[in-house]
Amino acid sequence: MRHDHLLSAGQLTRGDIEAVLDRAADLADDPGAVGERHADRLLALCFFEPSTRTKMSFDTAMKRLGGDTVDMGPVESSSVKKGESLADTVRVIEGYADGIVLRHPSEGAAKLASQFVDVPVVNAGDGAGQHPSQTLLDLYTMRERAGLDDLTVGIMGDLKYGRTVHSLASALTNFDARMHFISPESLRLPHGVQFDLHDAGARLREHTDLDDVLSELDVLYVTRIQRERFPDENEYQQVAGEYQIDAGTLERARDDLTVMHPLPRVDEIAPDVDATDHAAYFAQAHNGVPVRMALLDELLGGDAATDGGAGR
Ligand code: ASP
């Protein structure tokens, strides 16, 4: 992968993705395989929005690589509260660290940040935009469970505001997956995302009813309705709880259906699914560590010839 930053899934070729997933598989087997080269490296964690998995797995990944992290901490206790711009914040932080993982409520924030710094920036979620490192661990999980060739994937829930959906759909075009998007009318994929998918030759169909396609699916990727992104709470209440699955729903699915979810779940997947062979979402979250180790190893650079903040 020859990129300075990871900003959106659209920048990743099939070759890029496979290289990270292969490396992640190696690191999952042997975390020490990277040797000492990250020992003096620091990764800055800048989260302007809540996070459990993304932040903790980047933190764990960096430490497992032998490096360390510095955390901007909660926005409330940072100088952002005093009115500092994102550009100034990241310009300062690049002096402290070899890479920046950024989550921000504004779409395009990571791209903007990347224009002000020389160290690699990873977009860890920019509003309803993109979440490409999540996509890498999603694909890793799909590859482990179902392989990435000839896949039929259902993506259900909040397709409008769900950034993991936008990134995943974009990356799946590299594998020529058949994609079924299942959502209420008001949470359909945004036109811009659909346009890009069509442009990339995606095979996609939209549905309002899961039962239209459930029996065809290899993977069902369930998402949370992104309550925090609704301009109006009433709009959220109209769709809340509409798309839920339980063990009974899955009786109508293939035995080998894999159910995934980027988490956190609210009520989209009933707890009775957890004990079934379909459930992959906790393993999926755990895969975040080896996948982010592989990604950081690549972006931070193993030697002077690699892009990014190597040698800082
Ligand atoms: N954790 C994922 C994200 O940050 C999914 C979600 O919040 O629903 O986008």
UniProtKB/TrEMBL annotation:
Similarity-based family: Belongs to the aspartate/ornithine carbamoyltransferase superfamily. ATCase family.
Described purpose of this protein according to its UniProt entry: Catalyzes the condensation of carbamoyl phosphate and aspartate to form carbamoyl aspartate and inorganic phosphate, the committed step in the de novo pyrimidine nucleotide biosynthesis pathway.
Source organism per UniProt = Halobaculum gomorrense
Domain Aspartate/ornithine carbamoyltransferase Asp/Orn-binding as annotated: residue spans:
150-297
Query: Where does the Aspartate/ornithine carbamoyltransferase carbamoyl-P binding domain lie?
Result: 5-144
Q: Which UniProt keywords apply?
A: Pyrimidine biosynthesis, Transferase
Q: Give the domain of life.
A: Archaea
Q: Which annotated residues bind L-aspartate?
A: K82, R163, R224
* Catalytic reactions on record: carbamoyl phosphate + L-aspartate = N-carbamoyl-L-aspartate + phosphate + H(+)
| InterPro entries the UniProt entry points to | Asp/Orn_carbamoyltranf_P-bd (IPR006132), Asp/Orn_carbamoylTrfase (IPR006130), Asp/Orn_carbamoylTrfase_sf (IPR036901), Asp_carbamoyltransf (IPR002082), Asp_carbamoyltransf_Asp/Orn-bd (IPR006131)
Task: Indicate what this protein is called per its UniProt record.
Answer: Aspartate carbamoyltransferase
Q: Which GO terms describe its molecular function?
A: amino acid binding; aspartate carbamoyltransferase activity
Q: Does the keyword Transferase apply?
A: yes
UniProt cross-references to HAMAP family, sorted A to Z: Asp_carb_tr
Binding, carbamoyl phosphate: R53, T54, R103, H131, Q134, L263, P264
Q: Biological process (GO) annotations?
A: 'de novo' pyrimidine nucleobase biosynthetic process; 'de novo' UMP biosynthetic process; amino acid metabolic process
